Amino acid sequence: MMQPEPALANSRPGKNAAHPEVATQDRQFVPSSEKTDGYNQKLPIRLTRSVFDDLSIWMISVGVVIGAVFPPMLVGFGVPREIVLTPFFFSVCLLAGIVVGGINIRLMRVVVMPRLRALVDGMHMIESVVEQATYTGDWTDCDPESCQLPVDSNDVIGESASAFNRLIRVLQHSHEVEERVGDFSKTMTSQLELSPLCNGALRGFIAATKATAGAIVADVGGELSVLASFGIAEAESLCENDHVRLALHTQEPVYVELPEGLSVNAGLVEFQPREVAFMPLIVHSAATGVVVLAGPTAFERDSRSLSQIFARTFVMALSNAMTHGNLQRIAALDPLTDCYNRRFGLTRLREEYTRATRSDSPLGLIMFDIDHFKLVNDTHGHLIGDRVLANVAKEAKQVLREGDVLVRYGGEEFLVRQSRVHRKSVSVYAEPLKRWWCRIVTRQLAVRLAWDSGVSLRHLLMTKPR
User: Do residue 316 and residue 443 come from a single domain?
Assistant: First the structure.
């Protein structure tokens, strides 16, 4: 188990740890609570509905004013009044001001307008792509390489183009995240078996965070158990790990940074990690498990955020899988003897019989029952009879081989299925049952042990389960 020294390993629980400070752009978006005027700030006086028309009016007006002021200004510089203060000179100056204003308007439309038009056209294109992809899922019409605008100025026009390009990249990244979350969700919803589900989820976590090792620890039956692991040495030790328990207690991610050169106990991972993440699995405000990830480098902000999205999806699938497993176990087990019931047992037996027939491999059956069991119920009561049945099943499980399946076939009838056991070997395996039976319950109860031939086995398989 890893126990890093406090001075060398930085353990950071809490939501802030999941979102570290990162390098920001030159211009940051101010939160709404800290805005002063925002986009409601006062703008210059509008004359028309068009900004360019307003600009044209202002340019021509400024040109006229300059043309009107220019002759008196020349007088101040010593030019004779009879030359500059004439109607003809005034007219020429006013015309020159108007021409200069018109030239400025033309330059504005040639230099500025195309860039703004490209920005508007790009936004319209993105709008169309997003609207179409929302329903079709096809995002191939626009990508950062083909849709970005050239940034050829250091003013607000260039900044607008740069902001548009960043928007394209963010949109592309958002789509990639959406695809990865969708693929992960499909994996989670396609499995109800606990082991394949956890293994698939762990592969998704490792791929999303670029981790090298990981494990899933969850509360099963009131005790922590390792449901899946990869690259973790002595994975069971995670159940006693302090950081796992801290994540469960605080219900917040815990990130342990390990400085380079720090030597840790190899009981946690099979390599030297740079950072280890402990992400709690929370459902209905209760922590039910922890995902442990170890990477050779520090986890990036996107990796942390994506792994937490995966955790929220996985914990629901994990809860469903556990519920499904419990329901399957309840449906398959006889509640009194805790062995397979008749319906599930015969279903399994049909599968085994088909497999044995196809592969020409032997299949053994041992059937035994309790003689005069009705007399036990009538003499001692049904509660005692139930205890006899429960003890018989309990003791029989201890005698049987590993891999043998015990089924409660009827009221006091039991069936043992043995795979890859020849006919003569069944009698050998039945002897421990015979000797065991002579020692339990009472001497007045007997057991019948018999080998079912192929004919009776087919008859058994054709019997419809109750």
Answer: no
Total number of residues shown for the chain: 466
First to last CA, the chain: 51
Domain assignment of residue 216, given as a range: 192-331
SS3 335: coil
Q: How far apart are CA 208 and CA 376, in angstroms?
A: 63
411: domain CATH number? 3.30.70.270
Residue 428 burial (CB count, 10 A): 10
Task: Assign 424 a pLDDT band (cuts: 50, 70, 90).
Answer: low
- Tell me the DSSP string of 399-451: HSPTT-EEEE-SSSEEEEEEET--HHHHHHHHHHHHHHHTTSS-TT--B--EE
Phi, psi of 279 (to 5 degrees): -110, 120
State the pLDDT at residue 36. 45
C-alpha 191/C-alpha 322 separation (Å) is: 11
How far is it, in rounded angstroms, from Cα 447 to Cα 434?
7
Residues 268, 294 contacting (CB under 8 angstroms) = yes
Span 23-65, pLDDT tens digits: 333 444 444 444 444 455 566 677 788 777 888 888 888 888 8
Reading the block at residue 80, the tokens are: 């004779």
Structural contact between residues 95 and 64, judged by C-beta atoms closer than 8 angstroms: no
Q: For residues 144 and 227, which has the higher predicted lDDT (pLDDT)? A: 227
